[in-house]
Fold this sequence. Notes:
Layout: E1 4-7, H1 12-24, E2 28-32, H2 40-45, E3 53-56, E4 59-61, H3 64-74, H4 86-104, H5 114-132, H6 145-160, H7 162-166, H8 171-181, H9 184-189, E5 204-205
Parallel strand pairs: 1-2
Antiparallel strand pairs: 1-3, 2-5, 3-4
Helix pairs in contact: 1-3, 1-6, 4-5, 4-6, 5-8
Bound molecules: glutathione (GSH).
Glutathione (GSH) binds next to helix 3.
Amino acid sequence: MRPILYSFRRCPYAMRARLAIAVSGIEVELREILLRDKAPELLAASPKATVPVMIVDGDVIEESYDIMLWTLSKNDPETWLKRHDEALVAECDGSFKSALDRYKYGNRFEDSDAIEQRSIASGYLMKLEDILSTQTYLSGEKPGMTDMSVITFVRQFANVDRKWFDAEPWPNLINWLDDFLNSPAFADIMYKYPKWVAEAPVTLFPEPK
Ligand SMILES: N[C@@H](CCC(=O)N[C@@H](CS)C(=O)NCC(=O)O)C(=O)O
């Protein structure tokens, strides 16, 4: 049975799941979700109601990172799992993402200051810059799990105020992000799908070439 992926195009969590699926070559049935109008089938499968969610042979995988790990455990032709700094990814998913949300959605968090949070998040990005000043990727000379787990969140951070981001002293981080944004791999995961409804024809991801 082909896995089902509930996804949302612009969600950084869903994007990293799609990156792993695309590199693995495992074909899934993609169901594009609108966050403000979630499909009842998603809510029934996963009451926590976040995307991405993957259904494999009746099992529900509800965390993007676990979807990446499951997918790559099945097929990892670019050996991403060999290049995997778990601590750096955990810091991204934890304190960096928390500060990013408070920077990007400052008005939703009454007790925090957006600029202060931007500076907290920047501490993590300077750490990435230090690594990228000595090697091309966070994972070494080839991209790996570390790069692909964090890059969609760095993109989200950069997009809050790209002019400000580009003026910061992290040239290697900017190059690393821009190379990714200009890559075929990024274009392949950003294809626009219409909102999924149960009666729609099956949509396969990655797109058959
Ligand atoms: N820890 C989850 C987080 C997923 C998540 O928060 N996704 C957001 C979209 S980017 C979501 O679905 N939010 C629910 C909503 O906005 O209703 C994961 O890694 O998959």
